[in-house]
Design brief:
Blueprint (H helix, E strand, L loop, with lengths): L1 H24 L5 E4 L2 E3 L6 E3 L3 E6 L8 E4 L1 H4 L9 E4 L1 H11 L4 H12 L5 E3 L10
Parallel strand pairs: 6-7
Antiparallel strand pairs: 1-4, 2-3, 4-5, 5-6
Helix pairs in contact: 1-4
Length: about 130
């Protein structure tokens, strides 16, 4: 019983440490978001993609910190697929270097707490979604 308690306390401290690290890494008070706008060559119309949200620091719209995808983007309601977030590889590499995969669950909680958006999946590595990063 005590070994399980020690493990839970250690796991909880790691989660708190990772969440504090995320706050150091991302200035949520200086962050903004937008739905990407696409141009249809055939119709000449612009349209907003409401299935995706890009997150930036204010004044730096060319560097996305992360992109959130709702289930409509994937045409799925499977919680193993969505909603999902793709973190910029620069941050992902740093988080993986310090914490391996241990950062992903605390990141989901941190993201929900700060942006009121649920994340079931953190998309890692090369993916077809790279065009959004």
């Amino acid at each position: 019983m005590f070994n399980n308690m020690k493990y839970l306390l250690a796991e909880s401290r790691i989660e708190v440490f990772i969440i504090n690290y995320l706050y150091d890494m991302f200035d949520v008070n200086n962050m903004t978001w937008e739905h990407p706008i696409f141009y249809d060559d055939e119709t000449g119309e612009e349209f907003e993609d409401n299935t995706t949200i890009n997150f930036y620091s204010r004044g730096n719209y060319h560097f996305k910190h992360f992109v959130w995808f709702n289930c409509e983007f994937f045409a799925s309601n499977n919680p193993d697929v969505c909603p999902a977030v793709r973190i910029n590889s620069q941050y992902e590499d740093k988080l993986n270097g310090y914490f391996n995969d241990l950062w992903k669950e605390p990141f989901k909680k941190w993201f929900k707490d700060n942006f009121d958006l649920t994340v079931n999946v953190v998309i890692s590595g090369p993916s077809p979604l790279q065009m959004y990063m």
